[in-house]
Amino acid sequence: MVERKRELIDEIPALIWGPASDKVYIYVHGKMGRKENAEHFAEIAIERGYQVISFDLPEHGERKNEDYPIMAWNAVKDLKCIREYVLNKWKYVNLYACSLGVYFSLLAYNDMDIKKALFQCPVLNMERLIFDMMKWFNIEEERLKAEKEIATPMGETLSWDYLTYSKEHPVDRWKCQTYILYPSEDKLTPKEIVDEFKNTHSVNLTVLNGAEHYFTEKEYLDKLEFWLRNNI
User: Fold this and answer.
1) Distance CA 75, CA 82 (A)
2) Can you tell which superkingdom this protein's organism belongs to (predicted)?
3) Most distant CA pair in the chain: distance in Å?
């Protein structure tokens, strides 16, 4: 098992992986993830001289029963708490984020001195995603505004407050060198959104042909492994 130490950072359960170093990766998991998911990533990062810090997002891991929903404003608040902790302990900060964790990171860390960012299956534009989901289920904006929240058949609840927040907090600043692994069949982030992000920021893009947003096939997991080992 990889060496790890449990910490509680402003009531956020966290794990610090690896022996002491002045270099660290902040690991931000996606929806349905938890801090323990960082173990394999940490194995690779530790081989290269990094430590890794992972933590549970709201409603995930040890926080499943908290009355603290995984809304962007809560997640961003938590990521900023982790940020302050990290800046007090490490000299060189890097970032790995997956799926929804990418969106939260883009909001919370857009003015941070990050040496390198790795984004796996990134959610880059929440406003577009919410509007796409409304279109999938024939939900008009006026209806969402009136009802505030609408459950969808895919298990997600659309929120007027979340849509409003995403409009008021666009992802328009990001300054660090970024490596993206994008599955070509991703329904949550259209390729045009990825291309737009790539064209306006410093991005190295790898497309995982045939893969969907959530993939478990060995072929794609092997390619993920290769991507991680080449870019961490």
Assistant:
1) 11
2) Bacteria
3) 53
230 token code pair: 């080449």
The answer to whether 104 touches 97, Cβ cutoff 8 Å, is: yes
Count of positions (residues) in the chain = 232
Domain limits, the chain: 4-124+174-231, 126-170
Per the confidence metrics, is the pTM higher than 0.70? Answer: yes
**Cα–Cα separations (whole angstroms), residue 110 to 10, 107, 117, 149, 167:** 21, 6, 11, 29, 17
- pLDDT tens profile 161-204: 999 999 999 998 999 999 999 999 999 999 999 999 999 999 99
Phi, psi of 201 (to 5 degrees): -140, 175
Tell which CATH classification among 4.10.220.20, 3.40.190.10, 3.30.930.10, 3.40.50.1820 matches the domain 4-124+174-231.
Answer: 3.40.50.1820
Are 141 and 206 in contact, with CB atoms under 8 Å apart?
Answer: no
For the beta carbon of residue 84, count every other beta carbon within 10 angstroms.
Answer: 11
Rounded distance between C-alpha atoms, residue 158 and residue 151, angstroms:
6
